[in-house]
Structures are given as C-alpha cells and as structure tokens.
Amino acid sequence: MNFRSSVEIYTEWDIVAARQLGRNEAKKVGFGTVDQARITTAISELARNIYLYAGKGKIEIERVSEGKMSGIKIIASDEGPGIQDIRKVMEDGFSTSGGLGAGMPGVKRLMDEFKVISEAGIGTTITTVKWLH
Amino acid sequence: MNFRSSVEIYTEWDIVAARQLGRNEAKKVGFGTVDQARITTAISELARNIYLYAGKGKIEIERVSEGKMSGIKIIASDEGPGIQDIRKVMEDGFSTSGGLGAGMPGVKRLMDEFKVISEAGIGTTITTVKWLH
Amino acid sequence: MPQVVGRQYKEILKQYLSSQSEEDLYVGQQFSRRFIEKDIAPEDVISIHKNALHDIVPDLRKEVWDSFDFLIEMMIHYGLTLREHQSLIRKQEAIQMEMDVATGVQDTLLKTKTPNLKGLDVGWISKPAKQMNGDYIYFLNHEHEAGVAVADVMGKGIPAALCMSMIKFGMDGLQDENTSPQNVLNIINRIVEKSVDNSMFISMFYGKFDARDSMFSYASAGHEPALYFNAKEQTFSELSAKGLLLGIKPNVVYEERKQKMEVNDFIVMMTDGVTETRTEDGFIDMKTIEKLLLEVSEKPAGAIAEHLYNELSKLQNYRLSDDFTVVIFKKEK
Amino acid sequence: MPQVVGRQYKEILKQYLSSQSEEDLYVGQQFSRRFIEKDIAPEDVISIHKNALHDIVPDLRKEVWDSFDFLIEMMIHYGLTLREHQSLIRKQEAIQMEMDVATGVQDTLLKTKTPNLKGLDVGWISKPAKQMNGDYIYFLNHEHEAGVAVADVMGKGIPAALCMSMIKFGMDGLQDENTSPQNVLNIINRIVEKSVDNSMFISMFYGKFDARDSMFSYASAGHEPALYFNAKEQTFSELSAKGLLLGIKPNVVYEERKQKMEVNDFIVMMTDGVTETRTEDGFIDMKTIEKLLLEVSEKPAGAIAEHLYNELSKLQNYRLSDDFTVVIFKKEK
Ligand SMILES: [Mn+2]
Ligand SMILES: [Mn+2]
Ligand SMILES: [Mn+2]
Ligand SMILES: [Mn+2]
C-alpha cells in the first residue's frame, strides 16, 4: 500500500502544515529543489482555496508509482459551495491576482495531471499528480 | 555642450563595445545596477539589429538633462534598407525569438522615450531616452 | 516604495535564513505575488535579494555579489517577456469588449418578433455554447399565419452572423410573396447559393401554422426533423421532409408536408444541439426528449421549451457542446 | 538537456567572475534568450545559477545557498505568469486565424461585380486601415446603367459586416424596382432604420451612370461629396447632395442631382479616409487630391484610383488612419 497522509485545512496555519508535508514527501520521492518548490506551491494554492472559499477541507498527499515511474498525488477536497462554472475557473485569468480562478490554471501548470469534480452544494475534489522525470 | 560619444557597428565585437560605453555612461549618470543592465540591453538590441539587418551603422550615446532631470540618450542609425512596416515591427511579437521585430517593443519598454524614423532605401534612425527617476 | 519593499524582503529573508521554516517560505511566496501585481520585474527581485543578503551577511566573497550582477543580466529578457504579457492581457480584454459589442449589434440587427396569433402559443429558447450563437430563429408573421425558420449555420462570429443576415434579409424580402414552406426554402436556397461558396453549410427548417384550418406545413433543408405531439393519443411522431442543405445547388425543390393540429397538440422544432446532447454515457436518444416533453405537455409552449433546456443542460453537466435551440408551436383553443 | 545547459551556464559565469567583462555579460544575455525559447522558467535559472556558483566557489557560508532556495520560491509565480503568457500567445494566434477566415467569408458573401458597360470605364480601390474593412462598395448593374453604392459603416468586425450585408441584400432586392439614386437611398434608409438602433451610423453615396444619355445622377446620405473632372476645361467641381445619414429617421427623402458627362470626364466617389488623409502637417486639402488626379487624368479609371491611393498613402507614411476607398466612373468613347 502506498504511503498516504493528510492535513485538515481550517486555518492559515494549516496551509503551512500542508506545504511542509508536501515538501517532505516530494523530497522523499526524489524531486529536486525546484520541483519541490513547485509541488509545494500547488499544495499552497489548493489549500488557500479551501481556506478562502470553502472554509474547511482536507489535503491528502500520497506517493504513487506506475510501472517504473514514481510521483506524488495531491487530493484537495472540501464540502464547500462547489465551483459554479468550472470552464471559467480553468481559463487563464485576465488578472493574475485574487479569486478562486487565479490558482487553478496555475496548479494545472505546476503539476502533470489534473482533475476537478465539483457539485453545487456538495463540494469540490481536485486530484493532481506530478511524476518524477 | 553635453557629452556625446559613439561606436560604429560593423562586427559583433562592436556590439560589446557599444554596450560597454553605454554601461559606463549610465553608471556615470547615476543609474543603479538594474537600470544599467536595462540600458545596456537596449543598446545591445539596437546594435544587434544594425549588425544583423543593416550590416553597418552607428550607436551614439549622450548624457542629457532637462530641468532637474538627467538621463541618457541613445541614437541608433544605419543606412540599411529601412523598415518596411513600422507598425508591424512595433507590435508585440507573436514569438519572442528572432527577427528585427523581436527587439523593438522590448527596447521601447526598457527605455522611457522612443522614436523611429525610417525610409526605404535611405535607412533608419532610432532615438531613445531613459531618465533617472 | 521599492525601499519599503526592500526592507520587508530583507526581514523575511533574514527570518528564513535563521529558521529555514516552511512558514517563512509561505510568507515569502505570498509576498512575491504582490511583487508581480506591482509590476516588479524579476531582475528587480534579484537586485532586492542581493541588497538584502548584503545587509544580512556582508562579509561574503566578491564572487557572490558579482554573480548576482550576472544573474540580473540574465533576467532582463524574462522581465521583458512579462511586460509583454501585461500588454497582451490588455489586448485580450479589448477583444473581449469588441465581442460583447458585436453580440449586442447582432442581437439588434437580426432580431425577430415572436408571432402573436389567436389559437397559437409560441415558445422558444436559444442558447449559445460559446459566446456567439450559430443557431438562428426568424419569425415571418402574416395576418392568419405564423411562420418560423430554424437554422443552424456553420461556424461562429462573422461568417455565422453574415449567414444569418442572409436569411433575415432574404425572408424580409418575402413579405408579399408566396410564403409556403417549399417556396421559402427554394428562394432562400437560391440567395445562399448565389452568395456563398460550397464550403458553407446551413441547415434550415421552415414551418408555418395557418390559423384558419389549423394546418402546420413544413419543409426542411437537411435539418433535424421536428416532433409532433398528439395530445389526444399522448404520442409523438417525427415530422421530416426531404431536402438538401442550403446553398449546395441552385435549383433545389424542397418537399413540403402537412400536419393537422388539434387543441393542445404541439410541434417541437430544434437544432442538432438538442438531439445530439452528449452525456458521460454517450448521446441521448429521442425517447429521452419525448419523456421530458411529456412531463410538461400540459404547460404553455414557453414552459415546455424551458423545461427541455434545463433538463438536457443538467444531463450534460451544464456544459453545452453545441448551440441549443428549440421552438414550440402549441395549438390553443 | 538541463545538464548541458547547466554546464554551459557555469562556464560563462566562471568566465565572468574572473573577468567581469562586458563581453561575458553579452554572451550570458544571449544565452538567456535561448533559455526563454526553451521554456526554462526563472526559478530554473536561479537553480542553475546556484549549482554553477556552488561548483565555482564551493566554500561559501550556508546562508548563501539557503538564500538561493528562498529566491527559487520567490520566482515560482513569475514562472507561472510566463507560462500563462505562452498560452495567451497561442490563444491570440487562434483569434488571428479566425479573423482571417472571417475576412475571407466576408469577401465572398459581400462580393460585388464591377460593371461592364459600353462607354463607361470603372476603376476602384478599397483598402482597410486595420484587418477588417469598414468601407463598402456595391455595384448594381442593369442593361444600360451602372450604379454604385459607396458606404462607410461605423465600427469594424461583426457590426460592420452586418451593416454591409444589410446594404447588399437590400440592394439585391431592388433589381426590378426603380433604381434612381433617390429611391435607392430612401429604401435602404428604411431597411437600416428598421434594423438598427440610432447608435449605428452609415454614410452612403449612390451614383448611377446611364449610358443612353451619359447622365450621372446621384444622391448622398451624409457622405463625402464626389469630384467631377471636366476634361475639356481641365477643372474639378464637387458633387454634393443633401441627405441625412442612413438609419436616423424612417422617412427621409434624399435629394437627387445630375451631372452630364462628356468623353474623358470622370467622377471620383470616395470615403472620408481619402479626404481626411492626415500627414505630419495636418490634414491634406481637396487641392492636393485634385492635383494628384490631374497628373493622371488621361489614364484609365483603374490607374487613376491606383495613383491616388499610392500617393496619399505615401503622404501619411504608409500608415492609413482610416479605411480608404475610391470608385471612379470615366466616360469613354
Ligand atoms: Mn452550428
Ligand atoms: Mn448545431
Ligand atoms: Mn469607417
Ligand atoms: Mn471612414
């Protein structure tokens, strides 16, 4: 079974904890300094979105492997209001600052795989993976 | 009379000489390291354009002042074929690499003032100024 | 401003150098976002970093400081690309505004008036998948008759808008002529054929209700069949008629067919954006549409159209893959 | 690849640290451009720099290396913005392609056929200032007559294209009616007024040459006057007629006037992009246009139009500030 651990996101401090967990795991998988920073930034964005827009949620981090490849998977989930218009959120922002939308295309770019499932009133789950090349 | 000196551009080596002259002058005027680098880059782009597209030409560098402001003026001139479509050359490139066009919007951004005069078969003169803020 | 930024940066860096904590990196990264918002170029960041490090650990070998100067030089073109980005974003915003204006003008210019005919309840809905709609509805009203053209034109933007204008102005010119569905399609086909080359495809359904004998007559230029609901029998049947897409050949004669309507019967005209609704399990079938229509068959035409749109839109997760257009003619007492 | 890049970077940096020469900075900067082309993010540059410096001067205090890690963290969002830039550039290129398609469709759909009438030589030129043309020429041909509408519609893109289509399809519908300039403008004005709100402005000149009596009749909806060249006298006079812009009021009656033409006389119809040519010294005046026309008054209509365009375009440094359209009717033997 793969290693998996998680951080509940309630406060801004939890964002830092999720980052720390992610960076440690990324290092253990064997990512270099820059990729560690990228993975940590992706976690940071996901956790901030939970903190800012859903109020609470969870970041799970899992080491994954497929054949000879190994990598890291991040699952961000919340029971918030859900994303109204996913298409819009995934569009490249007309402004780099603020809003839920700012983060998503960025996270997608920082990682290799990216999937959103969102239902109004039920919540949002974002799953994203980065492989070690 | 203001100080003015110039470098003829024939070879790639002359580009370096023009840069060196510009950086020294920029330093004397009182620009900081980053602005020195920006002014030098602008000179570099102008000189490279002369070298690549006109074959030969001249970079003149002049310390200027207006009221309490002081600054540096760069005049790049050649007797090359002239710029066919200035509008196009000044447009933000759809590609950052290569071609005469790549440099011009960049030079404009690196400096404060920018003016082109170009006539087919007669040549091109670009005058650009950066003020010390 | 840069001095304040420099001081703050130094504090955060100093903190990090003494703790190497994740928290300081988080604070630093949040700080860097504000740098970008304030148009601080990456070469400026290197310079700020160099000065901060110099204040914190002044006694380093000269190579370190020289190396930062080199790094600044390396960053200049990165900074330029970023500034180009700002200008592209502004350009993009301008294009967006232009599109908004265009949509408004298109709506005004190609507007059509819903018929108001005794004995007929007309409802319709037309939703674009992207910003511009490639489906077009045009009503042709006469004293005892209500006609409607439902068209799906190829492409979006200017090409689509021009095709629609061909249809509108073509039909405007028909006011005093024979407006039998067959004749309408024959004439519009000739206009389209004359104006566009063969690479433009337009499908169109033309239906006309005559209040005097409650007869619905129709013709189709390669368009989706309509659905006829028989209220007494509570059954559906397809209304299809043979005919080539518009503009392919100059002299096509379109087949015209008729359907007698009784009170509470209705006819649903639509584009392929309705019938080709794609869900995660593949395309829906006609039965799904019929089921949805049946659920609200006693409501007014507008409510039926609305219901169909809402439910089909939900089935595809609120993401239309094609423009969606429905027109409903329902016979009233 | 990154390792090769890293080694090269180290060599250049090492060189610079020992010489601090401008040449090495130049080489470094040229190298940085290739970094950008290869999508090497700024955070990667910092990492490459750190590793290179570590190889060159390994014995530095720990703070230096930690400070680079901090700087990498600071650069991540810069890197993201740059990647967003790449995607915006691709988007922009897609829009450009779409515009190209739209221009093509517009040309096909709104195309018009230059008259071929014995006794009349017709020449024209129409050049857009930007990609899309907001000027429109439409010829209406009959057995003994050649008519032309020269219009300047507000805006560009879809709004302009739709206005043009109104004019084209409106005039298409006139084939069998009274095509006196007055009547043409009256009818087109009614169509425009019905279709657009008051915020759209269209100016239009309609001129018609009748081969039977060599009479040129014309009417104008707020458009630039035409110029009449009298070959015998070698003089110019303006042909203007009163009339409101199209679409302002529903029932405008346009003034119609006439000008008899003799062999070698010609009439120049144009848009304000011609008369309002702006040079560095301000606008040109009508005398400049007359002088240019006189220079080539013995040439065919097409050559006269061409000459006018070339010379006026040169006067404004080849940068049109407005769409430029000229139509010339020249009486032949
Ligand atoms: Mn379509
Ligand atoms: Mn469709
Ligand atoms: Mn115009
Ligand atoms: Mn104009």
Automatic annotation (TrEMBL), chains A, B:
Show the Gene3D superfamilies listed in the entry. Histidine kinase-like ATPase, C-terminal domain
What are the residue boundaries of the Histidine kinase/HSP90-like ATPase domain, all occurrences included?
34-133
Cited InterPro entries: HATPase_C_sf, HATPase_dom
Under Pfam families, the record lists: HATPase_c
What CDD domains has UniProt attached to this entry? HATPase_RsbT-like (cd16934)
What name is this protein filed under? Anti-sigma regulatory factor
List the source organism: Sporosarcina contaminans
UniProtKB/TrEMBL annotation, chains C, D:
State the Gene3D superfamilies in the record. KaiA/RbsU domain, PPM-type phosphatase domain
Which top-level group of life is the source organism from? Bacteria
**SUPFAM superfamilies, sorted:** KaiA/RbsU domain, PP2C-like
Q: What class of enzyme is it?
A: hydrolase
E.C. number(s) listed in UniProt: 3.1.3.16
Molecular functions per Gene Ontology: protein serine/threonine phosphatase activity
Q: Which UniProt keywords apply?
A: Hydrolase
The chain positions of domain PPM-type phosphatase read: 121-331
User: Keyword Hydrolase, does the record have it?
Assistant: yes
Among Pfam families, the record links this protein to: RsbU_N, SpoIIE
Which residue stretches, if any, does this entry annotate as coiled coil?
Answer: none
Name of the protein in question:
PP2C family protein-serine/threonine phosphatase
**Which organism does this sequence originate in?**
Sporosarcina contaminans
